[in-house]
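User: Can you help me understand a structure? I only have the sequence.
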Amino acid sequence: MTETLAPSRRAQAGPRPAAAPGFEVHDSHFEAVLGTAPRLVQVAETDAHEGPVYVPGEDALYFTTVPQPADPPEAGEPRAAIRRLALDGCSLRAVPSRLSTLPAPVHMPNGMSIGHDGYLVVCEQGTRSARAQISRVNPRTGQVDTLVDSWDGLRLNSPNDVVVRRDGTIWFTDPSYGHLQGFRPEPQAGDYVYRFDPRSGRLSVVADGFDKPNGLAFSPDEQTLYVTDSGANDEPGSYHVGRPHHVIAFDVLGGRHLGPGRLFTVTTPGFPDGIKVDRDGRVYASASSGIQVFSPAGDLIGQISLPGAVNFTFGGPRGQVRGPAAGQRYRRPRRVSVAK
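Assistant: Let's start by predicting it. Here is the structure, written out as tokens:
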């Protein structure tokens, strides 16, 4: 059950500090995010969709592509891939030669994270014939190893986003979007949030009160888990205002369980998808208007204006916000942009 403790508050009406192009300031605390000379730079236009992961040693961004529809559509076997963008410090607009595709046989990859071993941890949504799973992908060779593909004998729905905790456990969301979008069979389990321990092989449900759990991220001390619920989006392009479009926060108990959920913020316009937390505990969540930034208390302090933003990540020498953005789910083109 979700307990409403402190609903999100927008800054009180009044004069707002001037913002650089591409940014909206709702509270002066956002200035600490922007720095002295913020810029929003488009570095590539490609088929980016989800799962941005920045690898510092390579100065490269990995992401999953926009799904290509099945041919014929009734076959229910859409395709997507993992791609790599060499950034070169983002000093130049990326040329096509900086883009490459991993030779990884993954099935409808979506969210990704980076494991402690440097391998990609990938949410494979699966298809009608391929099982949904959390997999481990070698970013150099594309080799895929299954980490987990079922809970108590029941197949996963269509894993959406994943994060690796410092203790090595893997936490992920598993909404039933694959079935709603026609490329997965009818669900056998609920729309849950899971914790997977690779050492024991145990998969546990840690939260079950969601309509469509989507993005997730830990606070810097990993004592709070934030989860977005995008239930207002039932199918591509839809928005049902009476259904969830909010972020729920949970206390992490003993590194294994979650306490009661509490409302952190309700996003508007649109619904939240990707979510990240910076080193100072500020929460970044995507919305149809861009990437909204909230104080640790849940106040909206600013926005990076990227209409239709889906997901993003931090990366680069100064921890810039990077990632696929702009455009609605399953549409082209997408931009890879950087907020410096």
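Now, to help you interpret it: Confidence is low (pLDDT under 50) at residues 1-15, 325-334. The CA atoms of residues 209 and 316 lie 36 Å apart. Let me know which part you'd like to focus on.
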